Amino acid sequence: MTGAAGGIGLALSSRFARAGAGVVMADVDGGELRRRAAELTAAGARVTAVTADLTDPGAVARLADTAFEVLGDVDVVCNNAGVLGPVGQPLWEVPLERMRQVFEVNHWAHVLVARAFVPRLLERGRPAHLIHTASMSAFVVGAGSAAYAASKHADLAVARSLRADLRGTGVRVSVLCPGRVDTPMVRGLTAPRGAGGDTTVSAEDVAETVWDALGSDRFYLFSNSDAPLRLREQFDDVWRHVPFPSPSAEEELWPAPTATTVARKQ
Q1: How many CB atoms lie within 10 A of CB 141?
Q2: Which residue has the higher pLDDT, 155 or 260?
Q3: Which residues of 49-71 are buried (b: 16+ CB within 10 A; e: fewer)?
Q4: Neighbours of 240 (CB within 10 A)
Q5: Does residue 266 register a pLDDT over 70?
Q6: 3-state secondary structure the chain
Q7: Are 175 and 134 spatial neighbours (Cβ–Cβ below 8 Å)?
Q8: Cα separation of 139 and 56, whole Å?
Q9: Choosing from 87, 148, 181, 213, which is the catalytic residue?
Q10: How do residues 221-235 score in pLDDT, each as one tens digit?
Q11: Rounded to whole angstroms, how far apart are CA atoms 48 and 113?
């Protein structure tokens, strides 16, 4: 469970632990991670806390080693680490270094985790499920959200590629696309124009969405009730720009019937 010191990652860890699963929690914030892990342990959970910078390939490899050593077999990998980054600024004003940092966590860290875990999952030959946390921002882009939205689009593409790569194996892939979630990352934030949606759910609601999908072939996991409307608006916009050329004469094989067409009796 990456990004497990708070928000969705912590809620996922708690939900899995309540069900009796052993959980390896990973986060770059070691102090907060250990505190949260201690709370879950005190409540009877079987958790292991691993402080790791997931943008470091070596740290990710060590995390995978620890997970398999502690758990024996890994059934679910929640690729959840993420940062919000700069919001409210147009693309040309966002410092490039800040944009790179967002991509390092939201995209490249997810790539590294998948590369570290998936070969081992395939080698074990057991059913497993890989959950990638993207966002509704993988579909809906508002003003002033270039860094975050672009990184989430990239993560959606990675998840879709993994789904195709793993088709026919025992490893399922889902991409989690929550809208606004009440977490410390966004609490008090005014979403950029067109980016936030009209609903807010709890991190626990999102964790329940993931839990309900485990073992199924559901790829897209949406947690907010306004997701259908927001998606419809986006795809309607795409559809309006799709050209529909007139059919050529060769394609018009059957003339349209006229009002005088009658069936001749035999």
Answers
A1: 18
A2: 155
A3: bbbbbbbeeebbeebbeebbeee
A4: 7
A5: no
A6: CECCCCHHHHHHHHHHHHCCCCEEEEECCHHHHHHHHHHHHHCCCCEEEEECCCCCHHHHHHHHHHHHHHHCCCCEEEECCCCCCCCCCCHHHCCHHHHHHHHHHHHHHHHHHHHHHHHHHHHHCCCEEEEEECCHHHCCCCCCCHHHHHHHHHHHHHHHHHHHHCCCCCEEEEEECCCEEECCCCCCCCCCCCCCCCCEEEHHHHHHHHHHHCCCCCCEECCCCCHHHHHHHHHHHHHHCCCCCCCCHHHCCCCCCCCCCCCCCC
A7: yes
A8: 28
A9: 148
A10: 999 999 999 999 999
A11: 17
Structure tokens given for 263? 């069936």
What is the identity of the amino acid at 130?
L
Structure tokens at 194: 């067109």
- 220 included as an active-site residue: no
**C-alpha span between 238 and 209 (Å, rounded):** 28
Give yes or no for residue 252 having a pLDDT over 70. no
257 is written with which tokens? 């019937």
Which residues, other chains included, contact 139 with Cβ-Cβ below 8 Å and sequence gap of 6+?
A: 156, 177, 230, 231, 234
